[in-house]
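User: Good morning. I'm curious how 3-O-alpha-D-glucopyranosyl-D-fructose would be positioned relative to this chain. Could you predict the structure with it bound?
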Amino acid sequence: MQNVHAMRAHVRAEFEAADVAGDDAFAVRFERFFTELRDPLVALYGDDPRFADAWRRLLRAIAETAAGRSRELRMLDHEREITPDWLQREHAVGYVTYVDRFAGTLAGVRERLPYLRELGVTYLHLMPLLAARPAPNDGGYAVVDYGAVDPALGSLDDLRALADDLRASGMALCVDLVLNHVAAEHPWARDPAFLRTFPDRDGPDAYERTLPDVFPDTAPGSFTWSDEHERWVWTTFNAYQWDLDYTNPDVFVAMAEAMLGLARVGVDVLRLDAAPFLWKRLGTNCQNQPEVHELLQAFRAAMRIAAPAVAFKAEAIVAPQDLVPYLGTGKHEGKECDLAYHNVLMVLLWSALASGRVGLMTSTLLAMPPVPPGAGWLTYVRCHDDIGWAITPEDAARVGEDAYLHRRFLADWYAGDFPGSFARGARFQPDPRTGEARTSGTCASLAGLESAPDDGARKLAIRRVLLLYAIAFAHGGLPLIYMGDELGLRNDTAYLEDPHKADDNRWMHRPAMDWTAAERRHDAATVEGQLWAGLRRLIEARRATRAIHVQGTVQPLWTGNDHVFGLGRAQAGERLLVLGNFTADPQPVGLGVLHDHGFQLDEAAGAVDGRPVEAHQDFVVLAPYQHLWLVG
Ligand code: OTU
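Assistant: Good morning! Here's the predicted structure, ligand included:
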């Protein structure tokens, strides 16, 4: 074997001792990623007597997974090894949905693939689908068996068949992996060594001095008394979601086995749920601890050796300076997640839409650390969760705003409580201590479709939806369409009838697919037809624009008009400038701004938006919520 990786003598001895068999490709990967796997685990568990055995089991699981890869999956491994940016290319478009709400079962999803193909989807994220505890289970985020599919949705074989179908259609499959916690009923939760427990309130009280509440309204505090263990159990989220103790190497190996199991089924991307919470430290908010990044590097190295086609997506809804490290920075550069949710962009889009001003968005994006090479953003407008108004005091201060007041304004605006608001959302988990709240509601309802009294108002709402999606599509990375946004599905109140859901208003923006509405998607006279056509234009524009490829640079630009956002991109000699008017009024932008950046205005700039360009001698006027795409 070639010594592709310089190893210190004692590590080399361990490498030789590991003696893990496999084919040539496996051997090369094992040597290449050996230290990336071993170093973080030794740092975390080196002194733990359980480590030696855990390590052996981990290596065995990795080798077995690699050996079990079909010829087709091995080809995919090779293909993605030489195309590491496969998720972020200009034709990549994601779609996110619950299996049951979209098509009943996994078999049903297979039947609906033509719909997704027609839209142009290349990546399908299915919400939690592994066996969960009976309701309430937080939409499946309380797993009882990582090796089984929820029987109501189908079987592991159905999942395999779906993955095969998707692959044949050029679509990748993303599945949730709930890393931080298990259902209280999971067999692992019978073993106190897998949990963080405390005999009395001393520990919980000490931690809670600095722990924020995730669900302050419905699940206050972060600990739950267990009669079974006669101890307090760490429960960051709901009382039935028990946090795992990652200081125990057996927990790491158990979760690694769950990951590898999904790789064996043919899953392409793992969404690592609640990644920031994996490691707890007294005196902190117990998020984003350095050890979290060691864990993620080790998980990723294990997967790179076993099944390199499988990518990691971080679900870390945290502040900008804490977010970028999930894509691998510093000593973890190139060794962590391939993708992370750009929740900062998502929040700023809605903020700009409510205020009609783009200064906060422009300056905050300009101040964000760059994405490390090889990694990319998931850009999105809505997802299954609430919108947490994560605007920091530093970011607000840069544009002379007060972060607290602006966050309160946004919560009011999107609950429909602010004078002039077009939104029909709801407050999620209002925190009585701070008066703050997050926001629930579908994209369409938040953008004004539900409140629209007439055709004119409906048209504006449609324009708002398409403007937000236009920025998400132009930004670079992998854009996600949340199921129903392509048809303008409105808030669904049916959850109020279900006692296991009624207290969680996130269900209002998780409607069932409306296939009758979908049938109207080719009728330009309907809301569905206009949204569908608008999104289709965005997908086509993205495909045709090499500058969108993630390896290019993305640069927010000042346009000289505080109501018009500017986003510039450059890649391999091609350049793109997108302008977006965030108000319901016409807005001028001086042509000098365009010329300074090397762009000329032409008629084609309005093609993606679908409205003509209103050009004057020295300026261009953007129609309400219009977006212009200029290629240079
Ligand atoms: C995630 O969200 C899921 O997306 C939620 O649907 C789950 O309820 C939750 O985990 C528990 O499994 O706090 O308000 O930084 O923000 O993990 C949603 C990440 C959440 C957290 C995120 C979490």
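The longest strand covers residues 564-571. The chain has a mean pLDDT of 95.
Let me know if you'd like a different ligand tried.
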